[in-house]
Design brief:
Blueprint lengths: L4 H11 L4 H8 L3 H9 L7 H11 L3 H5 L7 H14 L2 H16 L2
Length: about 110
Amino acid sequence: MASSLKDKLREHRKKLGYSLDDLARLSGSSKSYLWELENRDERKPSAEKLTKIAEVLQVTTGYLLDEKADMDDSHVKEAFFRKFNRLDDDDKKRIQDMIDAWGKKK
């Protein structure tokens, strides 16, 4: 079901168990700014702020902005790989080792 930016922000914030205060702290935004995004129809967030909010909510900015987009597998994978790419090389190696081990269980 497609929805607006404000609906997606509220839905994903609540799904992760975050209050507006939590999301504000984690994204570097103010609580009032986030409240306006969730409650006003015509708010246009800056790209920088929206990117930080999307990262905290574990979604993509494209998903948040596209009113026709539903959270599908490609959005989930893009958000995962964005987080994965920020890891240091040692952590990436550990994850790769885990994936290789799971693949050998067959």
